[in-house]
Amino acid sequence: MEPEGGAPEERTASVAQANVAALTGVLPALAVLVVAYGLVWGWGALGDGFDDLIWPLWRFALLFVGGVLAHEGLHAAAWRLAGAEAGSVRLGFQVKTLTPYAHSSAPMTARAYRIGAVTPGLVLGVAPALVGLGLGAGAAFWFGLLFTLAAGGDALILWLLRGVPRERLVADHPTKPGCLVLPERSATGVV
User: Fold this and answer.
1) Domain span at 43
2) Residue-wise over 73-90: b if at least 16 C-beta within 10 A, else e?
3) What does pTM read for this prediction?
4) Which end of the chain is less crowded, N or C, counting CB atoms within 10 A of the terminal residue's CB?
């Protein structure tokens, strides 16, 4: 049965589209940051910072897994703080793709959805990369680049939501990256 006012508008992407967007949309900006770091701190420092991040490998694996879990936790926390309904946001793990996820079962404003989408990329990606660039902290710089790249799919979702008014209700899509833009309703429930 179609909801009153029409069907929701799907604003989603496949996992493959999200990965391509991460590479094509985010990599050029990351390349600029890498060149900036190399010019400011030296190319040797850039390589040393990379080595500091990935060695020992077990520590990098823990940082990476912790970062991925924190990424999803930041989605959930930001949605909740931005006004998502109490009890509607949950964290889980999709065994098929071996990935954690954050999901809201209740609609929220497009503004809240955007805040939840952008937060992990800013907190785990952009901020550490800029701090690393500013202080010459190579490991922090590379960590930030990695998690900026990891937020590329979230950047695609933000792009897909362009033009949706901030107070319009959206619902997190139950199976795909992205959301459903719900039909607009008047105060009487009629479009």
Assistant:
1) 15-87+111-150+158-166
2) ebbbbbbbebebeeeebe
3) 0.89
4) N
CA nearest 27: which of 143, 151, 158, 124?
Answer: 151
User: pLDDT exceeding 90 applies to what percent of the chain?
Assistant: 72
pLDDT in tens, 125-148: 999 999 999 999 999 999 999 999
Element housing 133 (H / E): helix 127-135
Is residue 42 domain-resident?
A: yes
Give 94's strand partners.
Answer: 99
| CA–CA gap between residue 179 and residue 110 (Å, rounded) | 9
Asked, for residue 136, whether it belongs to a domain, the answer is yes
| Position 2 in a domain | no
Flag whether 181 is in a domain.
Answer: no
Using CA atoms, how far residue 9 sits from 16, 168, 169, in Å, is 21, 12, 11
Query: Between 127-135 and 138-150, two packed helices, what is the crossing angle to 10 degrees?
Result: 160
Residues 154, 57: Cα–Cα separation, whole Å: 27
